[in-house]
Amino acid sequence: MPEDYRPYLDAILESMARIRDYLAGMDFKDFQNAPQAQEVAISDLQAISEAASRLPDKLRSSAPRVPWRKIIALREELAHQDEAAALALAWEVVHHDLEPLGHGCYLLLEKLTPRGE
Question: What is the rounded distance in angstroms from the CA atom of residue 113 to the CA atom of residue 41?
Answer without folding.
Answer: 29
